[in-house]
Amino acid sequence: MEELIEKIKSSQSLSQEAEDYLYAISTKKNFTKGEVLIRQGQHVKNIYFVTDGCLRSYCYDKNGKEHTLQFAIKNWWISDYIAIHSDESAKLTVECLKESEVVKFNAKDLELMLTLFPEFERFQRKILERHVVSLNKRILNQLQLTASERYDLFVEQYPAIEQYTHNYHIASYLGITQESLSRIRVEKVKH
Amino acid sequence: MRALQIVKYGDIKDSLAFNEVSKPAVQATDILIEVKAAAINPIDKSIILGNLQGLLPIPFPSTSAYDVSGIVVEKGDDVSNFEIGDLVYSRVPQEQMGTIAEYVAVTSEAVSKKPGNISFEEAAGIPLAGLTALQSLEFAGIKANDRFLIHAGSGGVGSLAIQYAKAKGAYVYTTTSTENVQWVKELGADRVIDYKTEDYKTIVKDVDIVYDTLGQKYTAEAFEVVRKGGQVISVVGPLDEETATMFGMADYKLPEELATLSAEKDASYKFIFMHPNGAHLAEIKTMIEDEKIRPIVDTIYPFAESIDAFTHLATGRAKGKIVIKIN
After folding, report:
1. 3-state secondary structure B7-24
2. In terms of CATH architecture, what is A2-116?
């Protein structure tokens, strides 16, 4: 939680009341590898801020194969925003890929926080902007770059992630087959 | 719900029928799976033909097959390791046989989450053959640099056993027919022997483990190619004495020919009886997700054409698994 407060304070001032409220509505949680925080089909209430570890959100297609939407490492937020925004059941599953520590917020409490402490709006807007930028980049990369270039960017963005992910997590994030991922890696070693 | 049922022992076409049956009841330790895909194995054919009625008698009608993948839609009160919505696969136990149906109830101990990187159809083809391969080679304690012979490398068990043995670092010999040599090589086998043009007994000598998936003369021949003090593991040959005792046959003796060969070579003989096991399926799941094992599917049949799937199985010419897409 201290990490989050510090992060907010690095970009703006935060009143003691707002800080106290943030503490009051948050819960620190630890998860072990394989634990599921949000399950496809269930009601979604919470948003998670990652202070340590790595989480992944994914969905299944009709054939039962998984597609990874996002990895969340330290200082990232993760949830099923589609479900929260539209008040539908979860389209995504969020699972823990390694021992992780997160701060859990109820989405409604965070919403109320914006009303109570307007200065928090700025922070919230920053998060959303960062999220939109990240998503836009991801879409453009998918449209413009080769699989090999996308892999390079991925490794740059998540430097240590390959130690605790399966190949198919990465392949399904990049939208390529595991065989293509293996080929790309072999090519990198050759050069 | 609709199910493909065995209505009597005999020819495949006469003995199978689609029936409307009630959804299976869910016991406290069971989960109910909405079946996405089922797969068939040689044992399913033998049951229909009545070849196993002494060992595994079934009441009529009985829904056919053991291998399944699907989604958990209901669970008993004592089930804590699965949630509704989990994607799973299983080789269901004998008393819960019947996966060619819209739903199947299975004790949760026989179930594992399915590998995330393969489809329901691919996953359905894994359990029975995968458990057979894993339990056999785990019993043999296969390890790096062991020299290993498996017959019929293109079969359901063979194709998985090759990959499992390679993952453990063994040197793998296998036999197959000319048309399968290339793809069996691609599974990782070190020496693929085309049994139509080569005699495996002149190539394979003094291996640590022979894995017999063919039976008949091959069980005895295994002792010609195994090293002194090695192991012969079979899933089709005669029972060994320890296994027979377990099944209540106290006076059972290993056929004399095998007993003599085994004593002469000081090589052990063990029959492996595959047992359903969710924890073992979870191990296989990890190996598939780590790309150490990949599923091989020959044909996917729609539910309505399940009987054709069995006639295909009966030809014995499938390269990989025959799968039925249920839903």
Report:
1. CCCCCHHHHEEEEECCCC
2. Sandwich (2.60)
